[in-house]
Specification:
2 domains, five-stranded mixed sheet
């Protein structure tokens, strides 16, 4: 069967490090995924529109498609306005929906939080295994985000996720990019890991080097073990509030924490209030690099 561009839906996942894309058809089959070559210049105010235009130009094999979904690493407010976005600070208060609509010639457009988009891909049965009841999704990439699934459906507004990354975890003075101190994101995300490793190794560390560096020596293992404990405490704080039955961890550096799963679970059980915490199931979502882009595309269906 011959497909045309109008048979496809395009999803973009714009993060603090790179932009990913996914092409999906009406049957929610994934046609293609990949990374956009052009980097986002998120330090330039008002650059969102230009970056989006460059992305669509690079994806000319699939664009104009039938619809466009855009997932963004940040708080997405009513009307598609980007609220607090610590890893895309100069795009804050940008009306991303209006900007996207100006490029799409009246095609359907949806703008949503990146982890909320991932939750949509999971509930649509496109990625991972759908939890039977409740689940907290935790994405560990440049920063840390969250989303909730309840009864097989994405909980809350589709556009805005759960700001798990900004739960305070320790009484210290480490400042998060959001402007507050002691957020879990200020420790476990790839940006924080790069800073900590650079300080320990006395040299610059790029986020793209993390898969090679993490867990390969005593320095990074000690760092990850410390962070695993903090992550377990933060997950327990979330569980004390919302009492989920499943926790799904994914994202660019999530795999680095999987060897420390026992440390995470132990800290989680110690800090959780309910006896039921011992029955909470932990999952590490495999091949999750494009889950946000896939969910963004599927959200337009």
């Amino acid at each position: 069967m011959c497909h045309t561009k109008s048979d496809y839906l395009l999803g973009l996942d714009i993060g603090g490090t790179d932009t990913k894309y996914a092409v999906v058809d009406d049957n929610r089959c994934i046609v293609q995924t990949g990374k956009i070559r052009c980097r986002s210049t998120s330090t330039i105010r008002g650059e969102f529109l230009n970056h989006l235009a460059r992305c669509l130009d690079e994806l000319s094999d699939f664009w104009p498609a039938r619809g466009l979904g855009v997932a963004i690493a940040g708080e997405v407010l009513a009307g598609g306005i980007l609220g607090r976005a610590p890893n895309l600070p100069s795009w804050q208060k940008t009306n991303c929906l209006t900007a996207a609509q100006s490029l799409t010639e009246e095609r359907p457009v949806r703008v949503l939080n990146d982890v909320q988009a991932a939750a949509y891909a999971i509930t649509a049965g496109m990625v991972g295994r759908l939890p039977q009841r409740s689940a907290l999704l935790v994405a560990i990439g440049t920063g840390v985000g969250g989303a909730l699934i309840e009864g097989g459906r994405v909980s809350g507004a589709l556009t805005s996720g759960v700001e798990f990354g900004h739960l305070p975890v320790v009484a210290s003075t480490r400042r998060c990019d959001c402007g507050r101190c002691n957020c879990i994101e200020a420790y476990v995300g790839s940006k924080a890991l790069c800073q900590d490793l650079a300080s320990a190794l006395n040299r610059g560390v790029d986020a793209r080097d993390l898969p090679v560096l993490l867990g390969r020596d005593a320095v990074s293992a000690t760092l990850l073990r410390r962070n695993a404990k903090l992550l377990g405490h933060a997950l327990a704080s979330a569980h004390n509030l919302i009492s989920v039955e499943n926790i799904m961890i994914f994202g660019g550096v999530a795999a680095a924490y999987k060897p420390f799963d026992c440390t995470i679970r132990s800290a989680f059980v110690r800090s959780a209030f309910s006896f039921s915490a011992k029955r909470v199931k932990f999952y590490y979502l495999q091949n999750s690099a494009f889950v946000g882009a896939i969910g963004a595309a599927a959200s337009v269906i």
